[in-house]
Amino acid sequence: MSTDVKTENVSIPTGMVEQSVVFESGNEMAAYAAHQINYHVMGYYPISPSTEVAQFLDGMKAKGEHDIVLIPADGEHGSAGICYGASTGGGRVFNATSANGFLYMLEQLPVQSGTRFPMVLNLVNRSVSGPLNIHGDHSDLYFALNTGWPILLARDPQIVYDMNLLAIKLAEDSEVRLPVIVSFDGYFTSHQKRRVQVIKSKEDVQKFIGEMPTNFLHALDRENPVTIGPYMNEPDYINNCYQQSEAMYKAEEVFERISKEYAELTGREYPVLDLYRMEDAEIAVFMLNSAAEVCKDVVDRLRANGIKAGVISPNMIRPFPQKQLAEALRNVKAITVGDRADSYGAHGGNMALEVRAALQTFGNISTKVVNRVYGLGGKDFYADDAEAFFMLAQEAAEQSFVEKPFDYFGHNPGSANSKPQRVLNPMKKEDLNTGLITVTPNEETGELNVKIPPLRSLTKKPKRLASGHGACPGCGIFSGLELFFKGIEGDIVALFHTGCAMVVTTGYPYSSHKATYIHNLFQNGSATLSGLVEMFHERKRRGELDELGLSDDFTFVMVTGDGGMDIGMGPAIGTALRNHKMIILEYDNEGYMNTGSQMSYSTPMGHMTSTSSVGSFQNGKPFHHKDTAQIMAATHIPYVFTGTEAFDRDLLKKAAKAQWYAKNEGLVYGKILITCPLNWKSKDELGQTIVEAAVNSCFFPLYEVERGITTVTYNPEEKNKRIDVSEWLKMMGKTKHLLKEGSQEMLQMFDKEVERRWRQLKAKHESPDL
């Protein structure tokens, strides 16, 4: 989104400030508000559906439209740390996340609220896995309830914009001084475009939110050094928590005050509770965020038929507006509370439990409460569904007691006829154990001798992945993986990180995996598989698998990519240090391609992604790529290698070695370069040509590190095939800007680094002690 498009000046008669109209989504409006506020720092990490917020800000940054320092973290836990650290410096801080990313940063959030440093976090609501689902519900939001952050809600893009302006003013108020969450529905509000009124001038926005507080303690005042987050014993700790609690309840009063100020400015006011036709309502529905708007339409229809119905939708749920809610329900006979997440085992969702507590606290024993969990995993909520919620309240109002106070809505029990059927038969053992590839250790030197047959003889070997997956045309993941797996004999158990390779092969109830497959999130796949590896060996040692007739051996392979060795690097290093007998195989497509081509640490310098935009103030990724193979080699595991499908026999030989080491000595790490035509902006049919050029330019050298000894397995200089880096770059649309006038400095920096790493690798090859 850019500030100079899709705007129309509009006179708002009920406000005091000139406004414009834009037609944008919730994510765009969060970014729009952030750029007007002009935060100092945003630490971020991509996760759908919140990723666009950082993308839009990066696009604006490339055009010089704001001064926010955008810091790409190595994961959401890191992004929360960046934000906390930045907030201790006394400036304004911003972030956006969703779902499991929010849970990954969860540990950091009470630290920030407990030490009272303001910031704003946009939580774009999405299902928390597993199983993996990327659509909208409130299961992440409910984890936020106990973090100590005030929580504002936004039902539509207009409110996303407004709440972001209110949030920073609330966070910095001297009576509150807490970080604030703005929550809105993923893919409902985040991506659907609506007509939105925005304050035209940044100066008017700055005037409304006010100057940054100067009386808060921070880490950058040398005349007043402070200790932030000290160790506390009781009673100091309970006193600190009490003060935080008092500030949280004060946030409700402060929010109402600044909401009235905002109404004078713009004509739009947000009371703590949004009450729709509740003045004489006898039945009601309580609903958060976007689904509340569906309920309002149904209310109008019900009232036309003589049914006195209303809708309650809070604009703030932390602090929970207990007193106002009890007052609004004083004459209501029954209410259906919709929870878009379950509080498993609590006999109700979080909102229903809090509504019941509000009624109990204020002595209301007559209003009946019905609770239904709805809309999980992004399941649509239609007008007919809303009407059913009102009818549940109507039925409860007519009964002396509620027969079914809690249940799910919209689920079905399934049937035996719908049970997933096996489509693919297990691969035969004799087809997997071909004996065509042999690995034999030299008795004297221990060096592995690998024999690879003619490649045509391996075509009969069954594929580990069935056809029919949903990868993009020209995707290099599966051609690269299948070539690697041709070098593996026998059965495998594979764990796939979240990413393209996982998503396009496992759309329930179908799976493209012929062997046992496990999924876990980016940050914990290697630890998960290491647990399975050790369980296998221990159960085998105890003879338990023999008793079950399961004496077969396995090769354990974790497949990662799409930036998985950013967020997953820590657990991978831990797995390496423990030296589990398994293979970690990284397919490197140079970005977070699964979420729309965001910048990864594996993205090379200068390459364009959706969070390293190209413009007059920015020229692609500003720093060099991470060399994961060398990082893993530094952990001194038995075997590390690089490969590509363009050098097939080289990769097959390394796969065979990888299996031998994983079975006999410990952890193996392999990195294969694969193409992503969609996000590299290259032709589908050029995949193998491009990765071959990457090798011949020495950007992606082929080598192995075997028991600490580095060997270059293909030297393009010796083959007289060395090409200039620019010859490789011109094959991809994402890098053509580097070949234009004005990019010479960055191109030279990139080229110089490629040459430095290549020379260093050759030195290791020539000197085994390095």
UniProtKB/TrEMBL annotation:
<dbReference type="Pfam" id="PF01855">
    <property type="entry name" value="POR_N"/>
</dbReference>
<keyword id="KW-0004">4Fe-4S</keyword>
<dbReference type="Pfam" id="PF02775">
    <property type="entry name" value="TPP_enzyme_C"/>
</dbReference>
<comment type="similarity">
    <text>Belongs to the pyruvate:ferredoxin/flavodoxin oxidoreductase family.</text>
</comment>
<feature type="domain" description="Pyruvate:ferredoxin oxidoreductase core">
    <location>
        <begin position="281"/>
        <end position="385"/>
    </location>
</feature>
<keyword id="KW-0560">Oxidoreductase</keyword>
<keyword id="KW-0479">Metal-binding</keyword>
<feature type="domain" description="Pyruvate flavodoxin/ferredoxin oxidoreductase pyrimidine binding">
    <location>
        <begin position="33"/>
        <end position="258"/>
    </location>
</feature>
<dbReference type="GO" id="GO:0051539">
    <property type="term" value="F:4 iron, 4 sulfur cluster binding"/>
</dbReference>
<dbReference type="GO" id="GO:0016491">
    <property type="term" value="F:oxidoreductase activity"/>
</dbReference>
<keyword id="KW-0408">Iron</keyword>
<dbReference type="GO" id="GO:0030976">
    <property type="term" value="F:thiamine pyrophosphate binding"/>
</dbReference>
<dbReference type="InterPro" id="IPR011766">
    <property type="entry name" value="TPP_enzyme_TPP-bd"/>
</dbReference>
<dbReference type="InterPro" id="IPR029061">
    <property type="entry name" value="THDP-binding"/>
</dbReference>
<dbReference type="GO" id="GO:0006979">
    <property type="term" value="P:response to oxidative stress"/>
</dbReference>
<feature type="domain" description="Thiamine pyrophosphate enzyme TPP-binding">
    <location>
        <begin position="555"/>
        <end position="658"/>
    </location>
</feature>
<dbReference type="InterPro" id="IPR050722">
    <property type="entry name" value="Pyruvate:ferred/Flavod_OxRd"/>
</dbReference>
<dbReference type="InterPro" id="IPR009014">
    <property type="entry name" value="Transketo_C/PFOR_II"/>
</dbReference>
<keyword id="KW-0813">Transport</keyword>
<keyword id="KW-0249">Electron transport</keyword>
<protein>
    <recommendedName>
        <fullName>Pyruvate synthase</fullName>
    </recommendedName>
</protein>
<dbReference type="InterPro" id="IPR033412">
    <property type="entry name" value="PFOR_II"/>
</dbReference>
<dbReference type="InterPro" id="IPR002880">
    <property type="entry name" value="Pyrv_Fd/Flavodoxin_OxRdtase_N"/>
</dbReference>
<dbReference type="Pfam" id="PF17147">
    <property type="entry name" value="PFOR_II"/>
</dbReference>
<keyword id="KW-0411">Iron-sulfur</keyword>
